[in-house]
Zn-dependent hydrolase
Amino acid sequence: TISGERFRERFDRFNEIGATERGGVNRPTLSEENARARDTLVEWFEEAGLEVRIDEIGNVFGRRSGRNDDLPPVLLGSHVDSQYNGGRYDGVIGVLGGLEVVETLNAAGVETERPIEVVSWTNEEGVRFQPDMLGSGVFAGKFDLEFAYSLEDKEGNTFGEELERIGYRGEEPCEPRDLHCYLELHVEQGPTLEDRDLAVGVVEGVYGFVWFDAAFTGSADHAGPTPMHLRNDALVATGDVIESVRRIAGTGGDDLVGTVGSLDVDPNSINVIPERVEFTVDFRSYDDAVVDRAADRVREEIDHAASREGIEAEHEVIMRIDSQSFDDDVVEAVADAADALDADATRLVSGAGHDASYLNRVCPTGMVFVPSVGGVSHTEDEFTEWDDVVTGANVLLNAAVEKANE
Amino acid sequence: TISGERFRERFDRFNEIGATERGGVNRPTLSEENARARDTLVEWFEEAGLEVRIDEIGNVFGRRSGRNDDLPPVLLGSHVDSQYNGGRYDGVIGVLGGLEVVETLNAAGVETERPIEVVSWTNEEGVRFQPDMLGSGVFAGKFDLEFAYSLEDKEGNTFGEELERIGYRGEEPCEPRDLHCYLELHVEQGPTLEDRDLAVGVVEGVYGFVWFDAAFTGSADHAGPTPMHLRNDALVATGDVIESVRRIAGTGGDDLVGTVGSLDVDPNSINVIPERVEFTVDFRSYDDAVVDRAADRVREEIDHAASREGIEAEHEVIMRIDSQSFDDDVVEAVADAADALDADATRLVSGAGHDASYLNRVCPTGMVFVPSVGGVSHTEDEFTEWDDVVTGANVLLNAAVEKANE
Ligand SMILES: NC(=O)NCCC(=O)O
Ligand SMILES: NC(=O)NCCC(=O)O
């Protein structure tokens, strides 16, 4: 079993990087803080004897040799970028958990048949640059490198320039390669495990989801002398869409969730009718047909709101990932590991997207979840009991060793 | 009559300050551009022989002596601060129009019985610091100076510090004093004059209005794994209020208008449920009871949306000004001046607030409107035919001279 103390000590030190006053971390992709987190990781990987490689999109790999180094490796990992003012657990426990697996094997002098690699994927969160899960997406062949480099944040910085700036545009080609399997430890970010008082989730799959960038363009005018019937108010139309998203997601009797998370008004003045509103829509379900139907409906609602308000609408799908069901063998290996440790576990599916969703296209893939207190994530209040993190890491260790000896 | 050419030349030079690419101006209160506009004004006032005084809130006065300098003066003016990326006419024609009246009298060697003063009021727009019409409001005794100095913009800069920084915190006490009357030339900012193909509006009064700062605080969470029934989404509640404001304003069968003009989401990420939304509400009518009823209704709607969504609501009235009806004699003087010039004119009321609304508490007050093409204002597309501006300035000249000789 792993050392909960060593793991904890590393976890706390790591989260001093970009620590926020309210107890979270602020390390959005390719920020200064993200760069420092990467530097620390590389240092720790090297200290643990891992051979470090950086690929063209900035994914960081650390490799521990196996008895038979020609066999495809077992890959363990997650991400260390964060939301703006996000939580300390999200992603971090999967990467440092992978490192802890290696340290445990090192300390016990255990060799595995196959090599084990630990990876930290670039831009999982998708908060500064969309789409999310970009590093794993390029690795899996879903996006090409040029597309990734050309993405822009709200300030107009490109992903390629920012990657270069922080010094993490590596040499290694970023493309699918032979992997025995991929395992990711992550916080659940939802309420299921806590509600049922369980320590471990054996993840069977991940929701599919769609992301829209949308905008309305009406006409700015004075809030006083402009009669109601002469208005072309981009925010009134957006209000309709916010309501529609809630209604579409709330009333299907299915697992669909829908969110308008980002919204920017121009000119954003108290006494000016809003001319332009840019906003996003996020829909998710384990059933891809449900996601597609929701996407169709919201497109209609956006167009409808625009025509009623007499304004222009734009909407573009910036991300569509199908729901994934993980490999039966890997899911069994995770379930067996939880059993062997007598952990209270259940099988579940993930509403959050994960790098594992893309890895599932490349190799047999599975995930281990640990509970999120209050089901809360993507906020500084994110919290998981350390005991649960340790249990999750032990499940990872056992499943990884089993797979690495196949 | 005034010199349309001299006036035009000044108008164009003045609007080079803070000119935007799309043909508007960006000179929000106490910005660098606003400071440069003030400097230019002071220079031109002095060139025209006016005695310049700056008061404690930064209102700029220029005085032309009368035959009897002890008589209360006739005051002409408006404002030179702008909306963010606002129009070239809004406010500017009233201040430069007042200066043009002086130049015309100078050129013709005409002395008036009473002194004539031209004023540029500080922070009419209320876009960077709320409330609006602050300089005239303090002058009229509606707000006290300390309140004004303590106001903060979105970055947390105080009004007092910013006024000091740009060097326009003057010595002259800002308080009501004896004025014979106040006259303001302004663009209509609404559609009435253009719709009826008229050159001049004789303004009989101004709508009353109320401004709210409001906010919802819910809880941030992950847009994926958080089921719809466990959400406390600040933006969904705001969507309800946007709809309510439109409904309250659109269905009364009265003149009520309502606008949500400013809205900021936190954390504003595509895959995070919005935790906090801050927004504004603006309601206006010529009937104060209608404004009060709308204010009550929107307060209820805000509280209702919060309780349905299970979140916290805040709302605060940051501005309430009663509707104003202007002095009969001054309104007649404006109507007579328009008649004498054979201008196509009508009487109307203003949906936009004006410094004249506060001056109406201090002295007999009236306004002259000229048409806004398309009824458009508070945007870079704001436009008025120069002939109409000239006609309006001539009405101002004639009314001012009549009053200054009483
Ligand atoms: N796990 C996680 O937070 N992923 C970010 C991408 C998403 O699901 O929105
Ligand atoms: N006239 C004008 O634009 N005033 C600004 C204050 C307001 O009416 O909103």
Notes: Chain A has a mean pLDDT of 97.
